[in-house]
Amino acid sequence: MKFYYVYMLECSDKTIYTGLTNTLERRFKEHAFGLNEECYTYNRRPLKLIFRQEFLQFEQAEMFEKRLKRWSRKKKLALANEDFDLLKDLAVCKNDTHSKNFQKS
Prior knowledge:
By secondary structure, the chain is an alpha+beta fold. The longest helix has 12 residues, at about 60-70. A three-stranded antiparallel sheet has the order 2-1-3, sandwiched between helices. The mean pLDDT is about 90. The chain has four helices and three strands; from the N terminus they run E-E-H-E-H-H-H. It has a domain at about 5-70: GIY-YIG endonuclease. It has helices at about 25-35, 60-70, 75-80, 85-90, and strands at about 5-10, 15-20, 50-55.
């Protein structure tokens, strides 16, 4: 059975790289050894694998990766640290224009 992995790497500059692969060990080695000079992580080594999630279907993995890429650093770290209370708090929309926060005059 083939699996797909969505993963997050914390880079030396504290940024978080999010990716998708079908072979996590190989892909991490490619990042860690800097095999591609064009890759985001090339000048940000050393790297630390902080999160991985396994999927059976590519489409589910791709959808999850795209969602994670839009998340803030704080939210990604909360997921990586399994801090689900913080993750829930960070997921709440706090914009004044959000219907839950809209103040009627």
